[in-house]
Design a protein that fits this description.
heterodimer; A: alpha/beta; Rossmann fold; four-stranded parallel β-sheet; 8 strands; 53% helix; globular; B: mainly alpha; 7 helices
């Protein structure tokens, strides 16, 4: 039997209503990445992770468990699972099997983003425990009443804290704040920019070309919802890298299959396999700009590709350049 | 026998932004869909507009497997808001079939 849609969506909605996130994280998991960075608390401009990078290891672990359950007789017990989840967060426990290596990776990406923004002279704070998940999964799956309620809570909190500008780090949170919140939250007027847009606006000084080329995998959300296509390329070129385009790129990018992980894992794997073939035809070193793309393509590629988040790549180029000068 | 429900078509038409009426069935969306489903989204929208509720119900797995990647939408010559339309259908199904809001 395929995975049952209703109870899985129900668990996401229940979690968002009761626990502020589709996949509740411990404080340590949500904020651990910022340890030692001395980010000021709050402020008018804040970096907003929306917990997405931090969720990736748990999402990956859950997707693997879901893939095992798909087409098994156990799917008929998801209804009972949803009932139990109302009292005990099952998804939290499922997330405990998350890979610590992937957690370190997610944390390092966020730390690299902070480093890149600081190098570009951008000043910002962080909301620490006040930061909440933005609600993308519940919005995309069409549970608007639950999403609207959550969005208004998030917006109210941002207003109370005096936040006027959000620097987002992933495409899905960017899309939520720029496209969904204005429809659900009256007078939502907080400026929202992806860190990639902010870095590109700062016109980074071109570094000496390094011996390397990367194949760019665009995120569907950045490319076709948020018009963020040129900025990653400008940044990679300024970092001295040569940029290669796969068969489908920019506004015509091919999905990584990520949106299907929770309900249709086998189909997600098929789609990511198609994309891996397209990327591999252009080179071995791939750059992603969305944590879902990173985890899905990595899973499908195995050892065939070296896939790095764009923040990791840009930070590594900067480190190389500063060690040479 | 095919049952037609005027309620479904009316509910969808009431939804702000559901603009599938502009679709002229050219098939660009079908050709570009990374999932490779033969039906999404042009046939689905036609079934919705005609109120073929049973047929739409049978499409629920496909409706929830849409990637919302907008590959079809960006290339649609009629500028149909395909991804938003799919999300609208998800909202209706969640409320009507799954009891989720």
């Amino acid at each position: 039997m395929p995975l049952p849609i209703a109870p899985i969506l129900g668990i996401f909605a229940d979690n968002l209503r009761k626990r502020d996130s589709v996949l509740p994280l411990s404080k340590k998991t949500a904020m651990g990445w910022a340890n030692g960075l001395n980010l000021p608390r709050g402020g008018k401009t804040v970096i907003y992770t929306g917990h997405v990078y931090q969720m990736i290891p748990a999402i990956d672990a859950m997707a693997s468990q879901m893939a095992l359950l798909e087409n098994s007789f156990l799917t008929r017990f998801f209804g009972i699972g949803r009932l139990m989840n109302k009292f005990v967060s099952l998804s939290f426990f499922m997330g405990l099997t998350a890979s610590s290596e992937k957690m370190r990776h997610s944390n390092q990406v966020l730390r690299d983003i902070v480093g890149l923004l600081r190098d570009a002279g951008v000043e910002f704070g962080y909301l620490y425990e006040e930061e909440l998940y933005a609600g993308a999964l519940v919005y995309d799956d069409g549970m608007d009443e639950t999403f609207g309620h959550h969005a208004r809570r998030v917006a109210e909190r941002l207003k109370k804290l005096g936040v006027r500008r959000l620097l987002t780090v992933d495409p899905h949170t960017t899309k939520m704040f720029r496209q969904a919140y204005p429809h659900f939250v009256k007078d939502f007027d907080i400026e929202v920019q992806s860190y990639l847009e902010v870095l590109a606006q700062a016109h980074p000084k071109a570094m000496k070309p390094v011996n390397g080329e990367v194949v760019v995998h665009d995120s569907c959300v950045y490319a076709r919802y948020e018009n963020v296509c040129d900025q990653p390329r400008e940044l990679l070129r300024a970092a001295g890298l040569s940029v290669r385009e796969p068969e489908l790129s920019g506004k015509s990018t091919h999905c990584c299959g990520g949106p299907l992980e929770s309900l249709f894992p086998a189909e997600a794997h098929r789609i990511s396999g198609i994309r891996v073939d397209q990327l591999e035809a252009k080179g071995k070193n791939v750059v992603t700009m969305c944590p879902f793309c990173w985890v899905n393509l990595n899973k499908a590629a195995g050892d065939r590709l070296v896939i790095n988040d764009i923040a990791t790549t840009l930070a590594s180029c900067r480190r190389q350049a500063s060690s040479c000068s | 026998m095919i049952k037609v429900s005027s309620n479904l078509a009316a509910r969808v038409k009431d939804t702000e932004g559901f603009n599938a009426g502009a679709c002229f069935h050219c098939g660009t969306c079908t050709a570009l869909c990374p999932l490779g489903y033969e039906m999404l989204p042009r046939k689905l929208f036609r079934e919705v507009m005609l109120g073929l509720e049973e047929k739409v119900r049978a499409r629920i797995p496909q409706i929830f497997s849409c990637l919302l990647c907008r590959m079809c939408e960006k290339n649609c010559p009629s500028e149909v808001h395909i991804a938003d339309n799919i999300r609208t259908l998800r909202c209706l199904i969640n409320r009507q079939e799954f009891g989720l809001k």
